Amino acid sequence: MLTQEQNDLICRAGPGTPGGEFMRRYWQPVALARELPAGGAPVEVELLSEKLVLFRDEQGKPNLIIRRCPHRGADLSYARVENGGLRCLYHGWLFSGDGHCLEQPGEPAGSTLKDKVKFAAYPCVDAGGLIFAYMGPGKPPRLPDLPFLRGATDHAWYTKIHHECNYLQGQEGNCDPQHLSVLHRFLPQGESHQPDLNRLLVADAAPRIEVVETGYGLRILAIRAGDSGSNLVRITNIVLPNYSSFDGGPMLNPKTNRIVPNMGYWVHWHVPINDTAHWKFSIAYRYDGPVDAAYQDEEFAFLDSKYASGRGMHNRFLQDREEMKTRTYAGLGRYFQEHDKFAVESQGPIFDRSTEFLGTADVAVMRMRRMMIEAVEDVKAGREPRYIVREGAPDPIDEMVVRSQNLAADVDVLSPWWKTA
Ligand code: FES
Ligand SMILES: [Fe+2]
Q: Whose C-alpha lies nearest to ligand 1, atom 3?
């Protein structure tokens, strides 16, 4: 349970709010790289409650600036990309991606008015299949040292999913391994791609949950009864400020491939659009070979051209009571992403955490909130928050482990068994 004040502190990320100041200390994904191809049109985006335009200049570099023209407010997502910037259609002022007004065709020769024009412009980089922006003060920190951000490779696959609710609800779902036994349950006649895992998750709906503090956030271990006295241990990570990594759906089509455990992992990055909507950037990363992109496209075929699912509050998520009798527990289809969308959107635009009843299985949710509140307080007090990595310093994310594994009963689940297992 949180007070209304604590809830606001970690939910609200608009400019000038304590939570917004905190979120702005970290790089945030702003778009999929494929949304902004070389030579393509500018894209209107909203990030942390700021309305912006993302454009690739003639050199191919991504830039992120205010959407409303600093002159008299025309929308710059309609502008022309030329002469090293974005030229407003209304009176032709030209704006660079680094915050300068370069030309004002309507001003007399020799006018210095353009040097006085100020507007928001944020550093922006391509990394893997994503474009990141830094909206905070001073020199940006290092980008997280995640392998799929080190260059475009076919070892990763990327998409995003629109959510009509606050980002923290999405991130809390990642802290909550217990819901896998309920919300995502397939019934025996269902269509799980991982029937053995589904069987074990369903059989033990009360996992022991251990939370370990790390340099990047939290390592969460969910320990369930496995077969023959073994323990099924799943490690999920919560990374500051707003993403997670976990063992998710297969990297390859299970109908045509043998699925080896721990081939890679998934990342969910919950990025506030504003306080009542967010993008879930969803990334599949495989260690030792290409992700099957055609298969992932098929698995995410429920998304439309705007990366939205057809299931929502407006149509009661198309819940099917017949399906609930034989195929899925929730009657919300077979895609986990749509189950999660129901869970977090149905909590409301910003969940009021002052009225909840938390249980034993919510231990990691509580730890994550406490970690967030501490980090916001750090920024408020002028201290650097946790997990800001500066150039030249080691990145604790290199210690991140993502696993789902059956361990013999005599293995200490809290030991670093992954180094040998
Ligand atoms: S409104 Fe953009 S140049 Fe005038
Ligand atoms: Fe889920």
A: 91
Q: How confident is the model at residue 151 (pLDDT cuts 50, 70, 90)?
A: confident
Task: Give distance in angstroms: CA of 15 to centre of ligand 2.
Answer: 30
- Atom of ligand 1 at shortest distance to CA of 76? 2
Ligand that comes closest to the CA of residue 176:
2
Average the pLDDT over 299-312 and give the result.
Answer: 97
The length of the chain in residues reads 421
Residues 6+ apart with CB under 8 A from 420: none
Query: What is the DSSP code string of 374-385?
Result: HHHHHHHTTPPP
Ligand 1 pocket check for 91: Cβ under 6 Å: yes
Angle (CA) 364-365-367 rounded to 5° is 60
CB of 254 closer than 8 Å to CB of 419: no
Other beta carbons within 10 Å of 234? 21
* pLDDT score, position 87: 98
Q: Which of 106, 151, 116 is closest to 130 using CA atoms? A: 151
The vertex-143 CA angle with 140 and 148, nearest 5°, equals 160
Residue 190 has pLDDT above 90, yes or no: no
In the structure, ligand 2 is a single-atom ion and the residues with CB under 5 Å from it are 340
Asked if residue 72 has its Cβ within 6 Å of ligand 1, the reply is yes
Q: Could you tell me if the CB of 183 is within 6 A of ligand 1? A: no
What DSSP character marks residue 23?
H
| Binding site membership of 74 for ligand 1 (Cβ less than 6 Å) | yes
Cis peptide before 241 (omega within 30 of 0): yes
Task: Name all domains of the chain by residue range, CATH numbers in brackets.
Answer: 27-133 (2.102.10.10), 147-412 (3.90.380)
Mean pLDDT for 329-337 is 97
Considering only CA atoms, which residue is closest to atom 4 of ligand 1? 91
Rg (CA), the chain: 23
Q: Quick one: which atom of ligand 1 is closest to the CA of 92?
A: 3
Over range 84-98, report the average pLDDT. Answer: 97
Does residue 421 register a pLDDT over 80? no
Question: What tens digit of pLDDT does each residue of 266-286 get?
Answer: 999 999 999 999 999 999 999
Query: For residues 264-279, b (16+ Cβ closer than 10 Å) or e, as one string?
Result: bbbbbbbbbbbbbbbb
Is the CB of residue 69 below 6 angstroms from any atom belonging to ligand 1?
Answer: yes
